[in-house]
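To the wet lab folks,

You asked to see what we're planning to order before we commit. Fair enough. Below is the target structure as tokens, and below that is the sequence we designed to fit it. If anything looks off to you, flag it before the synthesis order goes out.
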């Protein structure tokens, strides 16, 4: 018998810890497949909603936002790259990398959720931003990510050109802020359990198993012999 969990993954394309959190969560889900399965919905959060087109140098941005020195910024990038590498993801950030506006990426992710390719697009966008060091706010970059995610580029282009889903993204961003989410990644399970930050696989697995056990004992949420669907 397995428990089926609903997971909301609140994050931003510009957040390196969100990459680490997602990769670790997915590995933990794979390790916990004997007792649970889950649907992950990616929810929007903008770390830098006022970032202009073209972005800002990462070192300059971190210095302004957190007061970090160039040496501290470089050490932090190296630490994050090491954590990501342990999870099979290449972080290629350098002192020349930039922080970009991600609103259009969130619009495209909203559409991809409707189309059934949201997780694939999320991974493609993380790779574009952190591995390829290209602007995830650029429409050509977004279309390339959509193609890599197996989504229809013509439909994706129409979404980007039309401005569609802007209201829905702003609505969802506001919803999660009102629910108290002010830092990402924030992983919300069945609307009641919160796991914050880029935790290790072991931490995620332990939490998932405890939550699944508590729901199984209570007879909810969905129970079955295989993956359940709402």
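Sequence we intend to order:
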């Amino acid at each position: 018998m397995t428990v089926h969990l609903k997971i909301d993954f609140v994050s931003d394309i510009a957040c390196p810890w969100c990459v680490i959190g997602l990769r670790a969560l997915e590995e933990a889900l794979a390790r916990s497949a004997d007792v649970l399965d889950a649907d992950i919905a990616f929810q929007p959060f903008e770390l830098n909603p006022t970032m202009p087109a073209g972005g800002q140098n990462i070192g300059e941005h971190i210095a302004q936002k957190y007061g970090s020195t160039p040496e501290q910024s470089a050490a932090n990038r190296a630490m994050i790259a090491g954590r990501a590498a342990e999870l099979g993801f290449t972080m290629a950030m350098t002192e020349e990398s930039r922080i970009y506006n991600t609103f259009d990426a969130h619009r495209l992710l909203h559409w991809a959720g409707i189309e059934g390719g949201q997780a694939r697009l999320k991974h493609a966008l993380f790779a574009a931003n952190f591995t390829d060091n290209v602007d995830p706010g650029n429409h050509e970059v977004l279309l390339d990510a959509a193609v890599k995610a197996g989504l229809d580029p013509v439909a994706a282009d129409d979404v980007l050109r039309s401005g569609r889903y802007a209201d829905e993204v702003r609505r969802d961003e506001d919803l999660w802020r009102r629910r108290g989410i002010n830092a990402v990644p924030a992983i919300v399970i069945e609307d009641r359990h919160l796991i914050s930050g880029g935790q290790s696989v072991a931490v995620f697995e332990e939490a998932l198993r405890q939550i699944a056990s508590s729901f199984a004992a209570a007879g909810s949420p969905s129970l079955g012999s295989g993956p359940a669907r709402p």
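Structural context that might help your review: The mean pLDDT is 94. The longest helix spans residues 201-218.

Thanks,
Computational group
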